[in-house]
Amino acid sequence: MGDNRPKLSNVVRRLPLPELTVQTLSRSISPLILRPAHSGTAAHIKAEAMSISAKTTALIVLMGILLSLSAFFIQRSVVYPAFHEIEVDYARNNIDRVVRRLDTQRQTIDFTVYDWSAWNDTYSFIQSGDPEYIESNLYPDTFLNFGFDVALFLNLDGEVVWGSVYDFPSDGSIVDLTATYLDDIVAATAKFTGRIDPEEDIDDQTTSGVVQVDGIPVLFAMRPIVQSDGSGPHKGYVVFGQFLDDELITTLSDQIVQGFSIEPVSENTAPAAPDNYSLKIIDQSTLSASKIYSIDGIPTLRATAILPRNITELGRDITYYGIALLILLCIALAAALLALFRWIVVKPIMSLKADISSISSAMDYSLRASIRNNDEIGALSREFNSMLQMIEYNNTELLRLNAELTSKHQTVLAVQSDLQAANAELKRLSEHDPLTGLSNRLALEKKLEQAWGILCRTGDPLTVMLVDIDLFKLYNDRYGHQAGDQSLKQVADILASAMQRKSDMAARYGGEEFLLVLPGTNAEDALGIAASIREQVIAANIEHDCSPIEPFLTISIGISSVVPHGDLTTGDLVRAADRALYAVKGSGRNNFRYEPVGTTGH
């Protein structure tokens, strides 16, 4: 168990510390200034010394009594109940071992039944009743080796094709009980055939249980007869079982080194939970533990074991001796602590009081106490004045450093805020074109690579549009570069407004060229967007009277789209758009054209 008490350092940190100054120290120590003692001081000191000694003695005696009572309480309330819990767990574990052994016995029977039921020879025998199968396999020594008392081969109607019931006494003889018990066992086990679901896996086509025959429980397992590869259809059932008689129970008890008994339970008994045990104290030396053994969730048997209460007896003895020993130890410890306290603490304090009384009576403060111990009492007289001086100095220094640190912290915060703003502005300037406000080539390349990587995984298309202002050099020559810059901004605004999704990007590609990146947009939708952009530029009616195309500014657009994959790059996509733009320029400009990736025509 961990120690949940707060550490001393944490407690000290939570205490509010007042500002320590020379004035507060002087007020605190002023009552300690030595003054001349009045008559009877020695007697007063002696009375106080006796009081401390008496109080210390009473405290140590009280501590010894409390420790003794605590030891008694712990032994009776913790140790002894712990032994009882160990005994209960021991009983539960032992009865669980019994139940597990019964279930292991059932699994052993079921495993053998599985070998016989999923066998081509058995599959043929259940249909033909071949005597050679009986002579080769179904003789008493076979079941003696397995330890099975019951062996049934039934057809689908529950009729016996072959069956035998044996008893194998410990003297090695074989007693045939077929005529006596066969009909009863067949009738009792017939109802279990309905519990086998032929739709389940062949490994799960099984049922087990316990039936009563002449007052003796019979533990059995049943499986359908199929071919060796597990295929069917079912042709019958194989049933093997054992009498849970006293001889078998004794054998199982010897195997797990735990005696037990069993008794049948009613089929109407409610299924028991895995941790449902019945424990009963018989007397001070024995107890019984029982638990219901269920098969496929159906209660079948109640197993009971009688166990000695050795653990409780041991716990009781340990408790009594432990209490006596702890009481003796507490008495010895109290006596030792009292003697030690008188030697280490009381005696030096009495000497210190005598020195103080002498200094006070003589009014000579150059005298010093005679205590030279290398402990707290000796250090008290040596370090008191130097401690006051050090505390004052440290307090002043700490206040100065705190003010300096606060000032520097504010400066750092201001510089940090300015640096963050500068970084944000630098990032914005590095990724945007200063004239049009659109993204620049650096941001464009990042966007293309990012969109390409994402769409390679999603399988969606990536479309780019290369936009060029027609005959822009003539425009600059005619209207001047300032007008040219203004027209670039107008076209850039139209392109930016055409971006319909947050993932779309319009960027200045160079000079009068722009590149639009449209992730997730197919070629058909891109043609519609291009037509809209072209119409908006025409509607802007930017005068261009020296253009042989129209008396206003026009644009040409090259479009390409592809579903990104590892055999292509963004450069292939942009080059296809460039080929489309080249074709538009060659056919008269003021238009748009789509060019798929991978073609070479112009």
Automatic annotation (TrEMBL):
Pfam short name (any one): GGDEF
Keyword set includes Coiled coil: no
Domain HAMP residue range list: 343-396
EC number: 2.7.7.65
Major enzyme class: transferase
Keywords tagged on the record: Membrane, Transmembrane, Transmembrane helix
SMART domains, per database record: GGDEF
Entry's transmembrane regions: 56-74, 318-341
A cellular-component GO term for this protein: membrane
PROSITE patterns in the cross-refs: GGDEF (PS50887), HAMP (PS50885)
Cofactors: Mg(2+)
Key word Isomerase present: no
Top-rank taxon, per record: Bacteria
Record GO biological process: signal transduction
The reaction(s) this protein catalyses: 2 GTP = 3',3'-c-di-GMP + 2 diphosphate
Entry protein name: diguanylate cyclase
Domain GGDEF: 460-597
Residue stretches in coiled coil: none
Gene Ontology molecular function: any one: diguanylate cyclase activity
